Amino acid sequence: MSLGRKIGEGGTSEVFEWEGKSKILKLAKPNTKLSDIQREFKNNFIAWNLGLSVPQPIEIIEVNNRPGIIFERIVGKTIKERLFKSFIKQMNNPQPRIDLSDVQNTARLLSEIHELQHVELRPQRELLKWQILNIKYLSDEEKTSVLKILDQLPLKQQICHGDPNPNNLIVRNDELVLIDWNDATIGNPEADVAEFIVMIKFAILPSDTPQSIVSIFESVRETIIEVFMNEYTVRTGVTYNDIDPWILPIAVRKLYADAISEEEKQLLVNEIRERL
């Protein structure tokens, strides 16, 4: 079967329509190995089998010598798209009023995921250490200091998604669905929450974004974090003080990511060095 219309692209894959519009094919780029695809399929299947709100993984196939995964297609808008739509509606309002119910729902979904365990997921601490050691933006001494701090943090055994950013959260018929389970692990939920906070706090919008939208986003960054944490704390008892020690190792880990700009990485490096 030939590839359908291309509908998305990330750092490690391209996404195409498959068998009409009921399924998608997430096809690996050259920087992604078959073992990565197999791990993502397994992670996603574990989450789906536990009854979590995730796409159903269907099978692994090969197209033009590239491995890929066929998934149930989730039709809807991402949290990022919905947030920016609300920003656009408020462009001419001197006191923007942004609906952050999607942010609350994100906190609720993550709290449900973080209640669960599964022994077949890879250890979070092991992955974090590997990523920290393999970044190029810090000295060996700085990396060693980060690893020492990481080793002092408590160790838990809960399911964590690994990349709960607004592009991976899709609203389908009022249901929030979490996609892209490649980085799922068993470990500390605080790391997942820190991932969300770091992304909101340090994200740099594309250069062609209207300045009015940039201004609205800048004005609500901290509010988004506050709304998220208030909901997450109500549901789990975990506070921002519990999350803050994880900001450092997660900021370092994000330097390993392909999907963020060099400018954003420099902001992260500055934050890391302030915390060390």
UniProtKB/TrEMBL annotation:
<dbReference type="Pfam" id="PF01636">
    <property type="entry name" value="APH"/>
</dbReference>
<protein>
    <submittedName>
        <fullName>Uncharacterized protein (TIGR02172 family)</fullName>
    </submittedName>
</protein>
<dbReference type="InterPro" id="IPR051678">
    <property type="entry name" value="AGP_Transferase"/>
</dbReference>
<dbReference type="InterPro" id="IPR011009">
    <property type="entry name" value="Kinase-like_dom_sf"/>
</dbReference>
<feature type="domain" description="Aminoglycoside phosphotransferase">
    <location>
        <begin position="16"/>
        <end position="197"/>
    </location>
</feature>
<dbReference type="InterPro" id="IPR002575">
    <property type="entry name" value="Aminoglycoside_PTrfase"/>
</dbReference>
